[in-house]
Amino acid sequence: MSSDIFKLISKRRTVKPANFTEEEIPEAVLKEILESANWAPNHGRTEPWRFTVFSGKGRIKFQDLIEKIYNENPDVYPPEKLKKWQSNALLAPVIIAVGMKRTEACKIPLIEELCAVSAATQNILLTAEAHGVCSYWGSSISHLPGTAEALGLDGKDDCIIGFIHLGYAKDEVHDGVRKSSIDEKITWITE
Question: What span, in angstroms and rounded, lies between the C-alpha atoms of 57 and 48?
Answer without folding.
Answer: 28
